[in-house]
Write a structure and sequence with these properties.
Layout: H1 32-42, H2 45-54, H3 57-71, H4 74-85, H5 87-90
Helix pairs in contact: 3-4
Amino acid sequence: MRQAMSEVIIPGEFRKYFWEVDFDKLDFKQQRNYILERMLDYGTFDSFNWIFRTFSDAEVKSLLDKKGKYSLSRNSFLFWGKLVKDEELWKRS
């Protein structure tokens, strides 16, 4: 079940993905797209569960469709694009 935006806490283990900003000042509600982009681009397999719990399928697909080609690395864009197109891979357990 997804958390309400005001309740979302970005796990400290993800600090390494936000090296150029003050991690403690990230505001999930205001910087939601930036956080999702960063996690899709630099996150590892361990961060995927957090992405799936925190963001809706539609939200990820929308970001990929609207700006993923420009805001993500080519490899990340291709990986996530393939993942969201394959309904079996995208199903949440």
